[in-house]
Amino acid sequence: MKRLAVSLALFGVAIAAAAHAEAAARKIEIQVTADGYKPSTMRAKPGEKLVLVFKRIGSAGCGNTVVVPAANFRADLVEGKPVEVAVTMPKQGKLTFACPMDMYQGEILPP
Ligand SMILES: [Cu+2]
Questions:
Q1: 36 CA to middle of ligand 1, Å?
Q2: How far apart are CA 24 and CA 103, in angstroms?
Q3: For residue 63, what is the enclosing H or E element?
Q4: Which of 7, 13, 51, 93 is most buried per CB count within 10 Å?
Q5: How far apart are the C-alpha atoms of 10 and 62, rounded to whole Å?
Q6: What are the average pLDDT values for consecutive 10-residue runs of the chain, which has 111 residues?
Q7: What's the CATH architecture for 25-109?
Q8: 65-98 burial by CB neighbour count: b if 16+ within 10 A, else e?
Q9: What are the structural domain ranges in the chain?
Q10: Cα separations (Å) of 26 from 22, 64, 72, 78?
Q11: What is the 3-state secondary structure (H, E, C) of 90-103?
């Protein structure tokens, strides 16, 4: 019985740790408009975990596909269907995203 209590306690700690890790990723909403990404420049700490949420506004312009090279990510964007991608800021340098032709560009810079 004591052993069960110990494993239950450890289980609880594991769940709490997992929940904490989930909460640690910061969500950044990026609107994809006819004029490009809004915002197009953001800041994040090296090693920080982020979730980028791309929200297409309207259908004009070059926002139908977004590419995040560092995450090996490419997705089609449709209005009303936000697309999320988890990324981690590199230890050095910046993270970038763009349309496939690099006409729309966004970057996440260190502080
Ligand atoms: Cu383009």
A1: 9
A2: 32
A3: none
A4: 51
A5: 50
A6: 52 52 81 96 97 94 94 96 97 97 96 95
A7: Sandwich (2.60)
A8: ebbbebeeeeeebeeeeebebebebeeeeebebb
A9: 25-109
A10: 9, 24, 19, 23
A11: CCCCCEEEECCCCC
Are 86 and 71 a contacting pair, CB within 8 Å?
Answer: yes
CA separation (Å) from 15 to 22, 24, 51, 98? 11, 14, 21, 36
If you measure from the C-alpha of residue 14 to the centroid of ligand 1, how many angstroms do you get, rounded to a whole number? 44
pTM of the model: 0.78
Rounded to the nearest angstrom, the distance between the alpha carbon of 57 and the centre of ligand 1 is: 15
Distance CA 95, CA 70 (A): 7
